[in-house]
């Protein structure tokens, strides 16, 4: 899973051709660590139709504040530069794919 920063967010996420799932995360967040392998699997299996990236909220406050992210992990799906779905908290791969399904 790729990592994005305040400096690369516009290019990597907003200008991406594919939908992009952004995990707003923090090193101190246990649920963030729990969902990491789930997102890694999704990135590998769905890479043809979905880009998955991670953004550390402590190191990238501008992007975090711009999208009003308050809880970790927040998963935000972007399409054509706009956030179309936001989910908070860890979940199973099956549940996450179901919740993202209609937005993809």
Automatic annotation (TrEMBL):
Keywords: Disulfide bond, Electron transport, Redox-active center, Transport
Superkingdom as given in the UniProt entry: Bacteria
Keyword Protease: no
Gene3D superfamilies to which the protein is assigned, alphabetical: Glutaredoxin
InterPro entries reported for this sequence: Thioredoxin (IPR005746), Thioredoxin-like_sf (IPR036249), Thioredoxin_CS (IPR017937), Thioredoxin_domain (IPR013766)
Domain named Thioredoxin: residues: 1-104
Protein known as: Thioredoxin
Similarity section: Belongs to the thioredoxin family.
